[in-house]
Design goal:
By secondary structure, this protein is an all-alpha fold. The chain has two helices and no strands. The chain has one domain. The radius of gyration is 22 Å and the shape is rod-shaped.
């Protein structure tokens, strides 16, 4: 996930928190609910991207291990 996407999701989360707080303080249940929903959507997006990032980390580790063992095989033939 790129930095811009992370920043966008965080901004959406913070906007949702602000709406929820304003809705709570002004006794506006619709605005509070809208803010909570926006915050929840941002949290779900962030969680999904974290899963993707973790998958990329695993793939990188496997590639690295594979390359390492390939190098070791060539090294023993010398």
């Amino acid at each position: 996930m790129g930095f811009a996407d992370k920043a966008k999701d965080k901004a959406e989360e913070l906007t949702g928190k602000a709406k929820a707080t304003v809705g709570d303080k002004t006794d506006n249940p619709d605005l509070e609910a809208e803010g909570r929903m926006q915050e929840a959507k941002a949290d779900v997006k962030q969680a999904g991207e974290n899963v993707k990032d973790s998958g990329d980390d695993v793939a990188d580790a496997l590639r690295s291990a594979s390359e390492s063992s390939k190098f070791d095989d060539r090294d023993t033939r010398r």
